[in-house]
Amino acid sequence: MGLRERNKAEKWRRIVEAASRLFATRGFEATTTAAIAEEAGIGTGTLYLYVTSKEDLLLAVFRDEVGELWDHAFTLIDPTAPVVEQLMTAFSHVTAYHEQEPELTRIYFKELMFVSPAMRSGVSEFMRHFIGRFVELLDKAKVNGLLDPDVPTGMLAHNLWAQYYILMQRRYAGSIDPESLLPRLGHSFQVALWGMARG
Amino acid sequence: MGLRERNKAEKWRRIVEAASRLFATRGFEATTTAAIAEEAGIGTGTLYLYVTSKEDLLLAVFRDEVGELWDHAFTLIDPTAPVVEQLMTAFSHVTAYHEQEPELTRIYFKELMFVSPAMRSGVSEFMRHFIGRFVELLDKAKVNGLLDPDVPTGMLAHNLWAQYYILMQRRYAGSIDPESLLPRLGHSFQVALWGMARG
Amino acid sequence: MGLRERNKAEKWRRIVEAASRLFATRGFEATTTAAIAEEAGIGTGTLYLYVTSKEDLLLAVFRDEVGELWDHAFTLIDPTAPVVEQLMTAFSHVTAYHEQEPELTRIYFKELMFVSPAMRSGVSEFMRHFIGRFVELLDKAKVNGLLDPDVPTGMLAHNLWAQYYILMQRRYAGSIDPESLLPRLGHSFQVALWGMARG
Amino acid sequence: MGLRERNKAEKWRRIVEAASRLFATRGFEATTTAAIAEEAGIGTGTLYLYVTSKEDLLLAVFRDEVGELWDHAFTLIDPTAPVVEQLMTAFSHVTAYHEQEPELTRIYFKELMFVSPAMRSGVSEFMRHFIGRFVELLDKAKVNGLLDPDVPTGMLAHNLWAQYYILMQRRYAGSIDPESLLPRLGHSFQVALWGMARG
DNA sequence: GATGAATGAGTATTCATTCAT
DNA sequence: CATGAATGAATACTCATTCAT
Fold first, then answer.
1. A42, A28, A46, A19: which is closest to A110 by C-alpha?
2. What domain range is D6 assigned to?
3. Strand E contacted by B44 CB (< 7 A)
4. What is the mean pLDDT of each run of 10 residues along chain D (199 residues)?
5. CA–CA separation, D196 and D84 (whole Å)
6. At residue B63, does pLDDT exceed 60?
7. Which of A46, B5, B149, D141 could pair with D147 in a Cys bridge, judged by C-beta atoms 3.0 to 4.6 Å apart?
8. Alpha carbons C98 and C173: distance in angstroms, whole number
9. The domain that contains D20 carries what CATH number?
C-alpha cells in the first residue's frame, strides 16, 4: 500500500471514529458535519470526498460497528446447542453491546429503516447478509437434527429477525424497558420455533 | 348535546379531515400547522385549543382512520375458517386500504414508532388494543379446534403483529414492492403458525 | 389608523432604514438578514412577514430612497430652461446624491437589472414611471418651443435614460472615474438631442 | 510552431470550447471548473496554467466568440446605405446569433459589466475596440455624405452602443420579449440619429 | 373562545483555488 | 508540465408554538 493510500485509509478511520463518537454522545441530528470534520482533524469539505452525505456517514458507522458486532456474535454460537439457545447466544451478545451505546443504537433503529433512496440498497444488503447467516445457522441445525427438516429456513430467519427488530425499535423508542428485552425476545423465539425445534 | 358542544365537535371534525387531507397529499413535515388551520377554516392559534402539538394531531388522524379501518377488518373474518385465512382476510383488507394512501401510510409507519414521550402511551395503547383483538381471535380458534390449545396466544399475536409491522415498514420505506407484500405476509404467517394451526 | 397598524408601519420603517444602513456600509451580499433584523429590533422570522426575500427588501429600499430622490430632482427643474439644462439639473442632483452612498448605488445598478422573475415587474414599473416623467418634461418642452415638435418623446426619453443608465453602470463598476461622469452625461445628452433642441 | 506549442494551443482550444459548451448549457455559476477540466480532458489544476480564474475563462470565451461575431457583422455592411440601415445590418446579425445561445448571452450581459478589477480592462478594451469601429463607420458615412459632418462621432457611437447594450440587458434579464428587440433598436437608432443622417 | 403576529433556533454542502508531489 | 486531494467560508429561510388582545 502506497503512502497516499495509507493516508487515505487512516483518514477514513479517523472520520468513522469521530462520527461514531459524536453520534453516540450528541445524537445524529445534533451532530454537525463541521464538528465531525474537526474531531477527525480534516477540513469540512474533505469529509465529502469520503461520503456523499451525513446519512451516508451514519451508514458507514453502522456497517463498521454493527457488522463487526454481529461477526463476533456468530463466533460465540455452539452449533450443537438447541436452536433457541444458539439464537439467544448471538442476540444477547448484540443487545448487551447495544445497551452500552443507547443513543447510537436508537439512531440506528430510528433512522436506518427510512433512509433516502440512494442509501437504501446499502442498508438492505447489510440486513440480507446477516439474515443469510441465520439461514445458515438454521440449515446447520437441520443437519444436526435440531430443527424440523421441512421448515423453510429462509422465511423462518426473516420471522426471527422481525421479532428482534420490532423489539429493538420498541426498546429504543422507550416503549419497553431494558430488563424485559431479552426475556421477551426469548419467549418470542420459543413461540416462533414452536413445534419445529428439538432439544 | 348543546349548541356549543356541537360546534366544537364540528370544528374538531373539520380539523382532523383537513389534517388527513394535507398529510396525505403533502406529507407530514411539508404540511404546516398554518395550512391545516386555514384548510379547517380556523385561526392558527385555535388549533392548539384542540391538540397539544402537530404530532398529537397526527396521532388523532391515525386513530380516527386506522381504528375504523381495523374495526371494519375484524367484521370480515369468518371464525370457522383456518387461522391463516382469518388473518389474511383482516390484513389484506387493511393493506388494500393503505395502498390507496401511500403517503399517509408511510407517515404512520415512519413517525409513530418513535414518537415523543407524551404521545407514546397513546400509540402503545392503540396497538395493544388491536393485538388484543388478535389474541381473542386466536383464543376463539382454539375453541373451534383450529389452533393447538397449548400455544401462548398473547405471544403469538405479538409475533404475527411484528411480521406485519416489519413488512409494512419495508414496504413504505420503499424496500419491497407492493405486489410482494401480501404473498410475503401469507408465507410469514404460515411459518409463524407452523405446527400450531389445523385446517 | 389603529394602534396595530401604526405599530406595523413603524416596524416597516425601521426595517427599511436598517437594511439601507447595512447595505450601504457592508454591501448587499455581506449583509445578513439576521443583522438586518437585529438592527431593526425584530426577530429574524418577523422580517419575512414584511418581505418575501432579501432581494425583495433591496427593492423596497431602492424604491423608498431612489423614488424620493427622483421626486425631489424633478422639483428642481426650470421648465423654461433649455432642455439639456433641465435634464442636467435633475440628473446632477441624483448623481450627487448617489455619490454619497457609492456602495448602495453600486448595488442598485448591479443587482436590479437582473433580478429574479418575481421582482422584475416591480423594477420595471419603477423605471417606467420615471421615464414617463421625462416624457412629460419633453412634451412640456415642445409646448414651450424648446424641442422640435416632431420628435417622438417616448423613444427619446428611453434613449436619454439609456445614456444615464450605462454611464452609471460603468461608473459604479469602476470603469470610469467620478469626475468624468457628469461631463460625459452632458455630452451624451447634447448629442442625443442634436438638432432637436433649441435655446 | 514547435510541437509543445502546438500541443498547448490545442489544449487551449479544447478548454475554451468546453467552457463555452458548458456555460451555454448549464449557466455560468452552475458550471464548475472541475467539469470544464474534465470536458477538456485535463486535470483540475491544469486549468489554472491557462487562466487565472473562472471569470477570466468567461472573458476568454466571450472574446473568442463575440469578437468573431462582430468582425463578421462588420463585413456585411454596405457603406453606401443609409446609416440606420448600416447599423441595423450589423446589429441584427449579432442579435440573431445571440438568440441562438440565450443562456450564454445572458451571462455576457449580466456578468461582464461588473467584473473584478483584474478583468475590467480586458472588457473595456474589447468594447472600446468595437465602439471604435462604429466611429470609423460613422466617419466614413460623413465622407459619403450620409451624416452631418458636424456630429461628434465618438460620442454618437457611444450613444448608439448604450442603446444596444441597455436593450440587450433588458432582453436577457427577461424584461422584454425577443420579437420586440430589433424594432425597438431600430426606433432607438432613428431617434438617436434624428436630424443627423440623410438618405 | 378565538385570533394571528411574533418568534428564533439552526446547518449541510459546494466549489474555486492551491500546491505538494 | 500536470495533477487532483484538500481546503473552509459562509447564510437565507421556515414553522411549530405562544400569548396579548
1. A28
2. 1-50
3. yes
4. 74 93 90 93 93 92 92 95 95 95 89 86 90 95 94 95 95 92 95 87
5. 11
6. yes
7. D141
8. 14
9. 1.10.10.60
Instruction: Give the pLDDT confidence of A147-175 residue by residue, as tens digits.
Output: 999 999 999 999 999 999 999 999 999 89
* pLDDT per 10-residue tile (average), chain A, 199 residues: 70 92 90 92 92 92 93 95 96 95 90 87 91 96 94 96 95 93 96 87
Nucleotide with minimal C1' distance from the CA of A43 is: F7
Q: Amino acid identity, residue A22? A: L
Interface membership of D114 toward C (CB under 8 Å): yes
Q: Are residues B7 and B92 in the same domain?
A: no
Q: Is C147 helix (H, G, I), strand (E, B) or coil?
A: strand
CB atoms B175 and A124 under 8 Å: yes
Say how many residues make up chain D: 199
pLDDT in tens, D138-162: 999 999 999 999 999 999 999 999 9
Nearest CA in chain C to D114: C173
A115 belongs to a structural domain: yes
Asked whether the beta carbons of B39 and B99 are under 8 A apart, the reply is no
Q: Do D170 and C115 touch (CB under 8 A)?
A: no
**Is C43 inside a domain boundary?**
yes
Residue B90 contacts residue B74 (beta carbons within 8 Å): yes
Q: Which nucleotides of F are covered by protein (CB under 7 A)?
A: 1-20
Same domain, D94 and D23: no
Which cell is C8 given? 406595523
Q: What percent of chain B has pLDDT over 70?
A: 99
Nucleotide with the nearest C1' to B46 CA: E2
In a domain, B197, yes or no: no
User: From the list B151, B166, B194, which residue is nearest A196 (CB)?
Assistant: B194
CATH number of domain containing B128: 1.10.357.10
Would the pLDDT of C50 be above 60? yes
Q: Is residue A199 part of a domain?
A: no
